[in-house]
Amino acid sequence: MVRIQDILDTIVEYNPDAELHLVERAYIYSAQVHDGHMRLSGEPYLSHPLAVAFILARMKLDSESIAAGLLHDVIEDTHTTKEEIERRFGHNIARIVEGVTKLSKLSFSDKVYRQAESLRKMILAMADDIRVVLIKLADRLHNMRTLDYHKPDRKVAIARETLDIYAPIAARLGIFWLKQELEDVAFYYSMPEKYAEIDLLVDKARDEKEAYVKEVMEKLKEKMSAEGIEADIKGRFKQHYSIYHKMLSQNLEFNQVYDLIAFRIILEKKAQCYEVMGIIHDMWKPIHYKFKDYIGVPKPNGYQSLHTTVIGPHGQRVEIQLRTRDMDAIAESGIAAHWSYKEGAAIDEQTGKTFAWLRNLVENQEESTDPDEFLENVRIDLYSDEIYVFTPDGEIKTLPKGATPVDFAYMIHTQVGDQCVGAKVNGRIVPLAHKLETGNIVNIITAKDHHPSADWLNFVVTVKARSKIRHWINSQEKERSISLGKEMCEKLFRKKGYSFNAMIKSGEMDAAAKAFGFGNVDDVVAQVGFGKITSLQLLHKAVPDSEKDKDKENTGEKISSILHKIIGNKRKRKSSDGVIVKGLDDILVKFSRCCTPLPGDAITGFITQGQGVTVHRKGCVNILKMAPERQIDVQWSDSYTDSYPAKIRIRATDRSGLLADFATTISKNGANINNAQSETSEYGNVRSYFTISVSSIDQLNKVMSELRKLKQVTEVKRIVNAE
Ligand code: MN
Fold first, then answer.
1. Phi, psi at residue 339, to the nearest 5°?
2. Do residues 97 and 68 make contact, with C-beta atoms less than 8 angstroms apart?
């Protein structure tokens, strides 16, 4: 168990002026209120805040952070209130502890929208006071180190959450050691078999490569001393999770991962990094496209280094990183290295830049209300690698990997994005979907009357571009719906002997809009355009007497509005929920479009080139054509929550109200209609095709048997493989 003295000793080493008294008082108070509580491990509860505070001290944080670390669980787990903390320890510490408490209440492993909401709060907390998140990360690290005492299913859930949320945040903040430890412990608990497999392979490789590592190190050392350069040379194995991730994402075997060992040369001065790289390239032939200058162009989290890959002794590839001692410290501790322990010191430039990233993320989220969309956006921002491109004036812009000229245009300015019609990369015209690369000079061509296109959503990768394009499309759709709705209302009102426009002027329509719960006439008219309210319903609301001729209601409009209503409700489908791939927990799963499998169907998986696993129905003609060695066993998990598309065909003889009956039968049984097509032959034979969303094969069967009961229906069939 960590002792308070260990923490105080650590603080004094880097910050002799620290307010140790504050830390001691926090310790005494925490010990008092947690007294009698135990951890699952059987240790006194106090061991946890002590361990967290010790981690924070090793990150060289200020006294307030460390005191808050000691107190981080008191609001949640004891009777202490925020006011009490504030009275004893002041406003800042109370606010930080409250922030950590709020984050602790979030559950990331739940449904998508809860996860999105949680992540949003986490990011807001970061933008508010980064220390809240640093304490939360330290808290999670200690909980991961002591995870063994939890029940098995809790272990897996917590470990996954760590991989999904906490490790990427640590990475984004540049705290590399923390990211690595979180990843490896989480890997160990969430995929024990994979972990053991890699552990064994690394052990074996370590034996085999020991001599080789020694040889490379010796040669480098000899060369450095011959040149009179003082250097620290290290050779170490990639962490388990990185190896696993690389194998999975690039579809490699273990022995194909050539950069298992990274050699690192730590130098005194920046100029020496370039000098030494020149020397190494003289010794061993470099692979040119494998050279990266993160010194000239640092990563947004502050990381700096030169990376080069050369053909080393015996023709083997060797990856070498060169950096100064300062750069090395930043590469390990990221934002924490900049987060000055000198109390109240101004934020330095790099920290400011990192905050700018957070601020941008939060700002760009304000327009999106869809949690799926938010999560997708944050994921993109958290996980992707960056590229660096230039404006024609030579200004550097950082974009996620895969970014296109449209992303670049929106990064410059929303208006530039909205009006972008073309782009030049290094002076040559490229398509808007062109993927930019580091070093490109990008020139955007705009036209005043140009507008964003929905197609752009298929290739843009930045949050800003996405949310701005969606925003534009939504506003356009609304405008279109208003004018369509107006037209529909005018027509129907006229037919029934009323004047829609006169009723707007007289204010009668305002009352009707309010009765539907809308603030103004435009909003309710837009709903008519969307098909969510019929113009007749609106008329009845405005002139209640008109309801008498309800019987004569126009059935044509009714059918289309039922369909519209249902189609309007269709949910975006998530791709990877609901299926377990044997032995591989954390893999991207997609559902094939050719045979649209449903929970309950017998299924099989196909390993694609770098795109995870595609799930097909067993016996799908396409899977029969595919290489058997790439097929993999998959099964439905118990907890599928999504809806899946299924195609059905209905044959019937025509009668009035038939289509409406189909639609209501489908929706009555809880399924949504994504798409409907119907054709009637001149002899009155109807053939209708529906794509509907159902949650399982049972639900589909229920819908189909209900449809069969309808009058004049002769056949209802599920369609696979686009018959
Ligand atoms: Mn805790």
1. -75, 90
2. yes
